[in-house]
Amino acid sequence: MKPRLAIVSDLWGFNNDSYINLYIEELYNYFDVDLIDAQVLGDVNRNQDKQLIHKQFMSSGIDLAASRLAKAHIHFDILLGFNIGGTIGWEAIQLGAKIDSLITVSTTHFKTKKNFPSKSIKLYLGEAEKNISSEKWLQELGLSYSIRPSYGNLIYNNEAFINELCTELTESYSTKNDCCE
């Protein structure tokens, strides 16, 4: 049986984002992939500018999305969250969501967190991201992380990074025997 992988979008959702197809192409043979649109899950209005979308996520969307994930009682071996999607995954685990491993990419909303899920967590950040957590903070908390040089806050839609991450996921979380059942 393939591991179940949830991919939670960034604050823009999956509306017209071709990068998600690259993840699906790389991962579908190794995982049962569920795409979760953060805007839909958090009841965020798509027809707004970035600042209004972000404000809506901060005021209620993250909490609602995390609550819905937890209440769904769906087991995910891995949740891969892009930007706000990583924050949703983090909060969902705090609420009891059945998620074994959390992988976040370009998620920077953790800097104020003091309670950490007792799950496997790995953070991927671009070196040129705004609001990046300090390496000292990451080391003090014992979080597994990778800061990638030459990348910014849209690291997750860069084809070279996608290939690297998908290779790492397939090697770490799946078995070759499971890919063709």
Topology diagram in text:
Elements: E1 4-8, H1 19-27, E2 32-36, H2 38-41, H3 50-72, E3 76-82, H4 84-94, E4 99-105, E5 120-126, H5 135-141, E6 144-148, H6 159-173
Parallel strand pairs: 1-2, 1-3, 3-4, 4-5, 5-6
Helix pairs in contact: 1-6, 3-4
In whole angstroms, the N-to-C terminal distance is: 7 Å
Strand order of the largest sheet: 2-1-3-4-5-6
Strand content: 15-25%
Strand count, sense and closure of the main sheet? Answer: 6 strands, parallel
- The helix/strand series, from N terminus to C terminus, equals EHEHHEHEEHEH
CATH superfamily: Alpha/Beta hydrolase fold, catalytic domain
Q: Which fold does the CATH topology refer to?
A: Rossmann fold
Helix content percent band: 25-40%
- Tell how many strands the DSSP assignment holds: 6
Number of folding domains? 1
What is the arithmetic mean of pLDDT? 87
**Regarding quaternary structure, how should these chains be classified?**
single chain
Task: Tell me which CATH architecture applies here.
Answer: 3-Layer(aba) Sandwich
Could you say which overall geometry the principal axes of the C-alpha atoms support? globular
CATH class, named: Alpha Beta
| Separate helix tally | 6
| Low-pLDDT ranges | 176-181
Structural class: alpha/beta
**Cα radius of gyration in angstroms:** 15 Å
